[in-house]
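Follow-up to my post from last week.
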Amino acid sequence: MSAFEKTFRERGISLTSSRLALFSVLEKARGHLTVDEILSRARKKDRTLGLATVYRTLNLLCALGLIEKHEFPNMEATYERVSETEHHHHHIIDVRSGAITEFSADELDVVLEKIAAAYGYKMQGHKIEIYGEKIILDEASPKGKV
Amino acid sequence: MSAFEKTFRERGISLTSSRLALFSVLEKARGHLTVDEILSRARKKDRTLGLATVYRTLNLLCALGLIEKHEFPNMEATYERVSETEHHHHHIIDVRSGAITEFSADELDVVLEKIAAAYGYKMQGHKIEIYGEKIILDEASPKGKV
DNA sequence: TATTTATTGAGAAAGATTATCATTCTCAAT
DNA sequence: ATTGAGAATGATAATCTTTCTCAATAAATA
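User reply:
Got it. Predicted complex:
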């Protein structure tokens, strides 16, 4: 039984064939998926799956903390499974290609909690995004600025 | 002459009455403004200002680095003047009220540059968001979990 | 002031997400 | 296995934000 299915059973939330098809897609996938990718992959398992159900289920899974939604500037929204074993991570966004690289920085997380506390807040979540461009060594015609 | 106007002159970009009206709104405003707030305030100066022009001008100012666009989850996009004197800052978002608090953390910026470099990136920008709820002392009926 | 080009406003269009609603499905209790 | 109540679904309409189109206008330069 999948981790998603387990959570649904524990919470007494209905398990439907639509949801099982989506669970399978999201649990198998590596990295970030757009809504259209999720829909088309899940339709291979459940031919009649509707777009509205995809959105509803993604919202439900986000609310349960089983997946995360990412919205980077000028990109389609993507969804990603929250790993039970791996640590929370953040993202480097390549401003040229849109490529996403993940990194962890638990020591930063601690600093952010302290900042939140200093302003009278209990931190519940946080997000760090780095925008940059890949450093290319041995580039034929360097563009200066380095 | 406003800082925005100065930049436009230096770069040889046309100064129109639409743009001047928007400059005035954005330079006077404290904090974050939505597109509708910007439009309605600017219409007091330029009665015929159109929505498309607001979007076009905001995009232009973002590209010039004179303002920043912020898109927090489940909230309308907002725009904020980039100060020439104050440091780059980040945001704490109150998950209950949506209130935004700003904080600076230059020491974190340095750490992020190093992380970027470790992954082969030259950092060009970054974003830190803390989500949390206000700690209320002396609350009549605490909700546990503390 | 004339000329050239960029900018504008209005509305259409696009894209993403949510709402509506009649039908279908799930699941606990029979 | 069957049933019944409520939850979930798919199709599509509706909404919301942002961009596009294009004829008319305004800005900058000569």
